[in-house]
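All the exercises in this workshop are built on plain-text protein records. There is nothing in a record beyond a sequence line and a structure line. A learned vocabulary of local backbone shapes supplies the integers on the structure line. The question running through the whole workshop is how a given chain folds. Here is such a record, shown just as it appears in the course material:

***
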Amino acid sequence: MISFFVKRKKSFRNAFKGLGTVILSQVNFRIHLTVLIVVVVAGLALRIDPTGWIAIITVAGLVLAAECFNTAIEFLGDAYTEEENPFIRKAKDIAAAGVLLMSVTAAVVGLIVFIPALLNLLK
């Protein structure tokens, strides 16, 4: 039973190490975090409802996770070869497209949540 918890502790340590790597090495991840902070402050100021918070938290988590997956694919491709490889290039481009799609989805969800809140403020 103790070994179960020791293994979980190691898993969490590795996950936080990976999170630190992506934060320190990826400008786009830091941009997403900055936007998230602005969104949270705006959500608190506008008092968005719990359903809006669920939507915002969900898409924010998905954007950050997509950026982590994209970074992992980039690191794997770079570890495989420093030379230009068309298959690695395609994999990196597709991973980046996933981040783009998730970011656009998050922006649309943000508009759906924040436009009514802003309109209520103007009443």
In short: The helical segments are 2-25, 27-46, 50-80, 86-122. The chain has one domain: 2-122. The mean pLDDT is 95.
